[in-house]
User: Fold these one by one.
Assistant:
Number 1:
Amino acid sequence: MAAIEILGLEKTYKVGFWRKRPKRALLPLHLTVEEGEIFGFLGPNGAGKTTTLKMLMGLVFPTAGTARILGREWTDPEVKAQIGFLPEQPYFYDYLTAHELLDYYGQLSGVPARDRKHRINEVLARVGLTDIKGLQLRKFSKGMLQRVGIAQAILHDPKLVFFDEPMSGLDPLGRREVRDLMEQLKHEGKTVFFSTHILFDAEALCDRVAIIHQGELRGVGAVEELTASVQGKVEVVWQGTQVPSSIKALGAECHVTGDTVRAVLDEKQQDAAIDALRRERIRLIAITPLRTSLEAYFVEKLQRSETTASTVGTAVGTKA
Amino acid sequence: MNARIVHIASNTFREAVRDRVLYNLIAFALLLSGAAILVGQISIDIERLVVINLGLTAVSLFGVVIAIFIGIGLVSKEIEKRTLYTVLSRPVRRWEFIVGKFFGLAGTLAVNTFFMAIGVFGALLYVAHKFSAADATILVALYFIILEFLIICSLALLFSSFSTPLLSAVFAFALFVIGSFADDLRGFAALTHGVTRLLTMAAAYLVPNFSTLNVISAVAHQQPLGSQLVLHNTLYALFYSAMALSGAVLIFERRNLK
């Protein structure tokens, strides 16, 4: 059974003084996350990651579309007893201690009173928060609050956990601990869905990732599958604004930025491309092998969209 | 009552206590002890009347100020600080959150009123040296004051569900002032004709009628209060609060939490 099925969720906000100007925060999104996997939801800031998570949590209502979580309608409040959620930069009732806060959340999640104290101590130890009894949350550092946030998300032993930027505010050791925790959750059979813009974390942890940019899903799959598509490629950069037809014929993906052209092509076409540039007497600036990583794939997806956008912009400008 | 509502209500009460809201009792105690000593020295035969008037009015005003200033932040503060995210991502319905908050604030005010009532009776005993049977009507006046708080809490929550704290405070306080003169407003509406009468009548009946809940003067003058009035006021306050609370729920159910 799929843990999460997002079936065309989309969100358009009305902005401006009269709220008449539509702003699309998320284009129709279709995504399936299988049970027991760690799924990374990647994208730059403002890509639509938090909007998607908020919609799944019922905090923001979608303009259209639906979703199923653990086989049930995502709006069913009972589903929420089986999911945990860590919001981005969490903030809690600062007049409470961590134990009181978790006790309150345990009550709301229906954790039986006889189990609560034990569960609270267990999750706090799991996120590395000990010796904090009696200390109000207003005296906690940002990193400690992030740990409390993770503790409250797993307090009720949920089957599915949503983390929005879980490494935010943590030091390198803390990030490592959270990565270990996510792996432990996976080993316990839980599904972890987390959003991040730190690709290293995603690459190290995720079974599959989805890349979202400007509210649109740009790619989804296992990290190895995605990075395979950019393996063995080189980036050739030259001065000018023209792409010789002989280079186009090599199947290069070309992007013109200012007075330089960047072409991404197969490594085996590298010599042919250099020959073509020499023939055309074009000044070569650089040849760089593309790193085989999620980052390369991510950058390529983002660059492609920006080029498309600029091409469309130019076309519209010309037409006008 | 639904367990989640009880938990939200108790947390709201705990927040008020930790935010030192009940410290207002110190100010109240100082005011009342000062007044009792002063009245004992300057009033002849009307000590009881003055203490009841002053004491109950202070109970009402202190409570109204607390109800408005806590009530207006109950929802908006939670949205602004994003503490709501980790509550609503649990099996908590939005209406349960609103109702829980309402009962939490109402509970805070009830406890506050209980301690202030002890103060009023203490001051009364100080100036009159004994209680009379007629003093029992003070309890009815206190009950009406609590009903008044229920209406204000629900209105503050209603405004808080869609507006900023500042505007909510303005709206709630304006309604409190207008509602205190609701009887006059109804009398004025009765003098008009045609469409104006229809509109003014609608407005007069739409605003909360706090004047019917204010029996402080009658109690101070030892006038009897009929059981009919108690029943009428109870039903009125419960109905009005339920309506305002339903409005708050309806708005909050549709609100995007950005």
Number 2:
Amino acid sequence: MQAGPVYCNDVLVRGSVEPHPATPTTPVLEVEDVTKRFAGVLALDHVSLQLQQGEVHALVGENGAGKSTLIKVLTGVYQPDEGRIRYQGEQISFARPLDAQLAGISTIYQEINLVPLLSVARNLFLGHEPTNRFGLVDERRMNREAKAILAGYGIHVDVRRPLRSLGTGVQQMVAIARAVAADHRVVIMDEPTSSLEPREVERLVDVVRRLRRDGVAVVYVSHRLEEVFRLCDRVSVLRDGRLVHTSLVADITRLELVSRMLGRAVADVARARTRFADQQHEFGDQPVLRATGLTRRHVLSDVSLEVRPGEVMGLGGLLGSGRTETVKAIYGIQPVDDGAVEVAGSQIATGSPRAALAAGIALIPQDRKSEGIIPSLSVRDNIVLAALPAMSRAGFLSDRDQDAVVARLIEQLRIKASSPDQKVGELSGGNQQKVLLARLLALNPRVLLLDDPTRGIDVGATAEIQALISKLAGEGLGIVLISSELEEVVEGADRITVLRDGAVVGTLAGEEISEEAVMTVIAAAARESMRAADDAENPARDGSTNVAG
Amino acid sequence: MSLAEAARRPLAADRRQVFDWITERGVYVGLAVLLIFNLAFTPRFGELDNIRLQFVQVVPVAIIALGMALVIGTRGIDLSVGSVMAISSALLANYLGYGPVVAILVGLLGGAIVGIVNGVFIAYVGIQPIVATLALLVGGRGLALVIAQGRLTEVFDPTLRILGSDRIYGVPIVVLVALAVAVIVAVAVARTTFGRYVVAIGGNPEASVVAGVPVRRTLLVVYVLCAVLAALAGIIQTARLSASDPSFVGNLIELSAITAVVVGGTPLAGGRVRILGTLAGAMLMQLIGATLISHNLPDSATRMVTALIILGAVFIQRQRGGP
Amino acid sequence: MTSASGQPTAVHSGVDAQLLEVERAASRRERLAGTIQRGGALVVLVIVVLLASIIFGARFASVDNLLNILEASSFLGLVAVGMTFVIVGGGIDLSVGSLLALSAVLTAFGSQYGPVVAIVLPIAVCGFIGLANGVLIAHARMAPFIVTLATLLFARGFAFAVSNEGNTIYHVEAGNAVIALGQGSVGPFRVPILIAAAGFALAWLLLTRSRYGAAVTAIGGSEDAARLMGLPVARLKTVMYASSGLLAGLAGLLVAARSSSGQSTIGVGLELQAIAAVVIGGTLLTGGSGSVIGTLAGVLLLNVINNVINQVGTLSSYFQQVVSGVFLIVVVLIQRYLAREQRL
């Protein structure tokens, strides 16, 4: 077996972590035959897993495979219906998250579970604030120690500020700092890098390595396989609630891993990973959407873009670069201080979603749960909601109009629901997203703004949605596409507008498009702004500007 | 479901189905039980006079509860309804000199104005419903007292007397009014775009904005409707009693209305409106009071029993993922 | 994300310095807005008192009148302190008015059996009911609004029952030690004022400087996060509501001691006044941010307005209610404006 990283076509296929020496001691955390059912669905099916001291153990699987459920069982959020949990050799049962924490199991969640209104320092120390001799909280000491802890992570912020005033990346780092600061034996990380910029990912890598050195066991849940191969000693694969593979990371290739996750043959997996259509199609001449000079203080800075009919315009950029804010500004959910939006040549009012809808722009928001679906309403009601004025007479609903449209869209998008009257809250993520798409399509829009449409959705539905995007483009819609997976944007877009810090820093078209190209544009912009900051800080005496390297 | 939701969820699904059924039908079961009990044990309960009396007495709460159900459906609340009753009652008494029709219109207009104020504060300025309507509750009662100069006014008007006390084919007019209101509201909720918007907003306000629902306009209408219905209830009450007492009318009626709505199965978190349930809830509360009175149980017992019933109803409701 | 060669894209300190400056400015603005929000009530209070002193002279600004205002504020003040914690913790307690009445009745009733019973009975009962509120809200996960609404009804009914449907008004005998609590004085200050002052001081310390206060604030800010961060949320919420009940009980005891009798009809609408005072004081109704000093200012403000309106003989006292309502709205509007500033 080759040691060291192995690349194939510039893609990392085998990791570089030395295999951890075999430790014959009892596993620090172990689940045995654990089963968990929800309303007839078998979420975990007799899963057995051992976690050794000081090992970094990856847990991978598609959405719905049971990773989250297993984590929740390990941390006391759920209790298993069958099976046992052993902690340091002793059988144990956690009735609530607090019990798991007290036992020494610390968790970093995918959603940042801190208190936004509280200050950074308070979040860091909540529950165990340092006290003075009167038993009162010693705020100065708390702030001092918080500052020191975060400095160790390379983060320099005013720890008295409320957490929500900081970027999501920093917030997640605070959550990580909180989780690892205490004296724990096991740290569970659930998609820890989802909000992190590359710089912060490096710090997380340092943290994980340090934990490993200190003998702390780490459960690392991630769908970013590069991280798994880079950081982890062993990997376990869950599929449909069952454990289908456990091995050393060094003993498996990336393709084999993916094939275990999906339950498909390796050869199938090696082919194209996204379902966007390959063929080129004609774009219209006149742009169907034109946004000019969108500006909002501290958020967007003179953002302009154009989309032609039939074109997929991708928005590239890191987290916090302003992609979501751009589409929200175009659609009118967020107001703008300056800027204009034109649809097919006519200007529309900004700051009004209803004006945008009337002009033919439709949006799928990033957070479908909180901004997209209305869980208490039926599939039918969700689909027709935006188009109600067109499907009613004098304010009264027309069942016939609605039924026709709903039936057509359910079939076209293959929405799986027991009936159009089923509550949307009960559907799977993929089907909920399809309901949102159906809502947009019911309007016969001209422009679609899609913010991370395949996030958190299983492979099957993702493929369908990607294929649908290509099809809709082929039918002449203009589409703006954002995705947390750079690969998806690169594969799906005809042109890409690259954003950084709320401003456009470059555009790529056609053959120019690749993941590397996007990253290069972002990096160049970073260097530029650093240069400008240096100039501002150190103006040369004779008025000339620094030409720093 | 999110991690945080999971940490909170204690029940398995089968039990939830049972509770679902109880929540949706519970109020009717309670009503049936009370009816049977009273028919068996309360003398003269089944007599026409008594039945009419019960219906007449429940009218103000029922009408207000219908408006309150709409407001709660949008995830809001309206604490000012009692004060609106007082305002409309005072205005009615004041303007009676211009004839009953004008007086009634002015009373309804007064309610509408309060509703507009509530609606603007809540929908356009963004103040929370409990705070805005609380302010109107406090200020409104004062306003009513100012209009009436603190006095109880006797109201002598033949039209109003007919409205308050007469019957058509044996059915009291006020009951017919309440039924008409119920039908109108039910149709609005079930069959109009307005009704869809109401439950959408209650189900998920942010998503409704994204979906292009005219949220602010709908909320304004909802609060105006609620206030106008409260004004109507105040007018009816004044007509029935032939007196306008702004320091007393409508006192604590918001509690009764909210109780009727919640017991009737409309969740406080919004997203659904049960009209029939609300009416049943109002009648249930009415009958509880009547039962206790006719069995000579004191006022204190009524309150305590009502409190326990509210707790029971909400306890069951929260199992199905209520507020 | 790294390029294929594995090198992370480097971002240097220059950008960080620029961002840090923007952050510092934003931080200053936020904290200013926060201070205004919390301290605003105090400023308004001072302004109103000054204005009233100028306009009404000695009728308002006399020591006697000011002491009266303080005394009237002490009962609402105790209740509002408990309400502050509940609201900061993300909940609400509508039962305090009825608990106050219940407590007054029980105090007077219990005084027949000696001062110990007169003190322990009402506080214990109200504390127990508050505890019941807490258990239903925190453990049975029921909505605070409805639970405390039901308790409001229940406690009032209970008070009626004890006092024979309001027909019996128990009196506290003149020699009873309990009277000292309500009518005694230390120097120029009546005992209720001192008790309330002590209550506010203790509450301020708890909310701003103790782990309990930090935990309550966290729970109000995000209950789910607080739970996942390991706070014993259910236990803390129960404590919040139990304390609220206890404080209402204490206030009712003082009212009975002050008036030497226990009427079952008092306290109607008191909870709304308490909520108004808390909101005026800058505490967010949604929870997660609050100020005991603000509540103090709110309570005093409401009582000063009450006092001022009653001084002006020509305006009917009904106007006091109108003014209170308008005042609440104005304060909330200002708060919203400030909150918008803070978000940026």
